[in-house]
Amino acid sequence: MPPDNAVVFKRKLSDALIRSLTEPGKHADGEVPGLYLEVRASSKVGKSPSKVWRLKYRLHGKENRFSIGAYPDISLKEARDIARGARRDVANHTAPLRSRPRPPRSRHSCSYRPVFAGPAARPSRPAPYFHLSRLTGPVPRGRR
């Protein structure tokens, strides 16, 4: 009998099989190596289990997991396409997360803001910067 954390491989995944899965565990796809569907039981009674696509890969001697997304949002075909692209990145010695295009950051996306704002209040020397946590207090440990 396989250990509790082993990937269960019975047959190639299909959409009908994925919809019927309710038992918690890892269900491997027979088509793309390393791609599996992780099914987690819900802690609430009567709620369906969560299903998340993951890709297991090894890069620079370390085993990693790449989370692709939730099952209803990402179909089996999309998950396979994303996993193939991620495996291509791993073959090129690039982590799959690093190769994704990032949305451009806005000018004021960080938590540092200038003290003076606007053309009327612009001083002759650069404005000092301060961290917004000085105004609001420390951030609780679990909220970072």
What does this structure look like?
The chain has 144 residues and is an alpha+beta fold. The protein contains 4 helices and 7 strands; from the N terminus they run E-H-E-E-E-E-H-H-E-E-H. A hairpin with a 6-residue loop joins strand 2 (25-28) and strand 3. It has helices at residues 15-20, 76-91, 96-99, 133-136; strands at 7-8, 25-28, 35-40, 50-59, 62-70, 112-114, 129-131. The chain has a domain at 7-99: Integrase, DNA-binding domain (Double Stranded RNA Binding Domain). The model has no long low-confidence stretch (mean pLDDT 76).
Helix content: 10-25%
CATH superfamily of the domain at 7-99: Integrase, DNA-binding domain
Note the gap between the termini.
41 Å
How much is the radius of gyration in Å?
23 Å
- The fraction of residues assigned to DSSP E strands is 25-35%
Which structural category fits the helices and strands? alpha+beta
Q: Please tell me what the overall shape is.
A: globular
For the largest sheet, list the strands in their spatial order.
Answer: 1-2-3-4-5
